[in-house]
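retry 2 of 3: previous attempt timed out while embedding 6-O-phosphono-alpha-D-glucopyranose. Reduced batch size to 1 and resubmitted. Inputs unchanged:
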Amino acid sequence: MCGIVGYTGSQNAAPLLLEGLKKLEYRGYDSAGIAVVEGNTIHIRKVTGRIANLCEKTGDGQGIPGTTGIGHTRWATHGAPTDTNAHPHTSNDGRFAVVHNGIIENYVELRRELTQKGYRFESETDTEVIVHLVEMYYGGDFKQAVMKAANRLRGSYALGIVCANEPGRIFVMREASPLIVGLGIGETYFASDVTAMVAYTRNVIYLEDGEFAELTPEGVQVYDCAGREIPKPISRITWDIQAAEKGGYAHFMLKEIMEQPRAAKATLAPRIQSGEVVLENLTLDWGKIQKIMITACGSAYYAGCAGKYTIEKLCRIPVQLELASELRYADPLVDEHTLLIVLSQSGETADTIAAMKECRNRGAQILAIVNVVGSTIAKLADCTLYTWAGPEIAVATTKGYTTQLLVLYLFALYAGKLRGTLKADQYHRLVGELRSLPRRMQLALDMNPRIPKLAKKYHKADSLFFIGRNTDYAVALEGALKMKEISYIHAESYAAGELKHGTIALIHEGQPVVALCCNPAVMEKTLSNIVEVIARGAEVLAVAERGNQTVLSVADDMLYVPRVDTLLSACVEIIPLQLLAYYVAKENGCDIDKPKNLAKSVTVE
Ligand code: G6P
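retry 2 succeeded.
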């Protein structure tokens, strides 16, 4: 969703801001803008649409002088994606400009108050109240004005504010939205995501909720909400900058699909030692746990759907799954006997954070499985297990999802052993199998060279059904989501046994059905469902182990997976479906890395 960047130093700010914004494009946006301070003037440029338009409008930033500036990519919430609603927003006296990521919940009342006091609003955004508040409170002290304005705001925000009277100074502030400050030599950066500045500096400071900071070319001073200076540790970004580049692939999504075996190794290797699962910092009160609840959104939720089978089977403990957007308002039956497992690639999903807080208030212990280091969810949890997938740029998650599954498998094996529900021989066999998953994921990538051809056959479909039972059904959910997200083809996943209770009415001559037949325990049952849809004219594209003659004999087309124990197979089974979605979207000429209307990090409700 919205992204913010800022720079103060001795170089021309505009080109750096534009480069930073390009790195944030993946978060999803529909307009963009920058504000650069030069002398006592603030130059503003905004466009609807892509950063490329902003580059064109500003001669790649060369046309705008000034060495301090802020930039923004906007994903419209309050007001349509127009130039006027795009950030930065300026005060009526032209002295201040602000960029904002998040939502100001009390903006209606603030807008009314400010309008009554004579402030003129140009846009429909919630953000604009911030800049008028700063102007109202400004009596010559920039810091005081920012603090007073912040005290009036409710909601979530990561803000950057510049002042024409004070070139070379930026105030930034964080409340429930990510904000990171980057320290260079004679220059200072900020951004909502480290990818926007890792090319310039690897030394960063993560702001916490309620903190604000003053950036100058010499460095940064962080304050608490009362304006008292607070010392902050400097963290070092260790991942390779190329991890956030396309590296020769046509799209980030394809690169990230291909990276999965490597990401899986990074997730597993440090946690399997001498044939044992070792989970760092898992300081849970195991004696108290009577049930597990998993909550997440989107693909992370579907990773939970697959993980539930593994945890229940190996730990013999009930696992309940709840969408975070539902759980937060569900008055949930959660108490100190509940372990809440929260899954999130970004660690910033607003609904997931809210659900987590709701369960925390009811006494649950919280384990977070997160990819982004230092993210809000990672900080809020009692324990965090990082997925170590590296930066994921494509909006549609791939390696984020599979590495979440791997951590759930690790957890299930670890907890199963600890609880004594898993026999030693089964434990050791599954640990061995887990270790082999990166190799099997690579096989799943290699054994499907026909997928681009199959995409040519299926890309014209109006809709696709994905069916399966048990663990295959969990994978079907994610397979259908991938197809919808990036190819814009209607796709629906169904528990295969449930088809006959209604959905089979939609099966007609030529209707493509993707059938997952990887789970031997239910394969015969799924085969019966396949035969039923074939009898009604469906074309079946089956996913099965290579060499499965029974499935081969009924399906029209095949996607192959290597043999993997059912309890650990989802992370391998999904791979051909990710590739299918990718190539179908490519055939349809879709904007694969930045699908329309979607955002990578969903920081609004
Ligand atoms: C968005 C993304 C999905 C992701 C979901 C949850 O909708 O487009 O790919 O699965 O958010 O995000 P999280 O960062 O919490 O895993």
